[in-house]
Design a protein that fits this description.
Elements (H helix, E strand, L loop, with lengths): L1 H25 L3 E2 L2 E2 L3 H23 L12 H40 L5 H22 L18
Length: 158
């Protein structure tokens, strides 16, 4: 348990440090027109680093308990992986087929797989949510979101 806490604290510190580094590259100060692009991410990264250091010191300076505690039971790990692995596939899907199509598929599959809904309902909700999101960003706000390397929406002119 202790070694897992140390690894997670160090990983989170590294993630926070990466956010800080990139925020400084973008500009983390206050410019003539307000906060620069890295202003808010800088402070978020700083909070992640401070929280990670607090956790690390608590683990390293805390008293050692007798015996070994299990970091995670297999049943709990299975539940986490049921969400984590499809989320990783979803992120890859965004790169290949774009956020709208990948989101429709992700919502539909999750509704059927974990929610135990039928395929018809899952597809209707997945496509509906993506269609509303598409209309909101692409049409109303005129802010195009990433459509992927293969851009399946090019079939309908987007």
């Amino acid at each position: 348990m202790r070694s897992a806490e140390v690894v997670v604290a160090l990983f989170m510190f590294g993630l926070g440090a990466l956010v800080i580094f990139d925020s400084v590259r973008l500009g983390w100060g206050w410019g003539a027109e307000g906060p620069e692009a890295g202003y808010f991410p800088f402070y978020i990264g700083l909070m992640i680093c401070v929280g990670s250091l607090v956790t690390l010191f608590q683990v390293l300076l805390g008293s050692q308990s007798k015996g070994h505690k299990v970091f995670v039971e297999w049943s709990a790990l299975r539940l986490v992986l049921q969400v984590l692995l499809p989320a990783a596939v979803y992120v890859l899907g965004i790169q290949l087929i774009g956020i709208y199509v990948a989101s429709a598929a992700y919502i539909a599959v999750f509704m059927v797989w974990l929610g135990k809904y039928g395929w018809t309902r899952g597809i209707i909700v997945g496509v509906g949510v993506s269609a509303v999101t598409f209309a909101m960003f692409e049409i109303w706000f005129q802010v195009p979101l990433f459509k992927g390397e293969f851009n399946p929406l090019s079939l309908i002119g987007y």
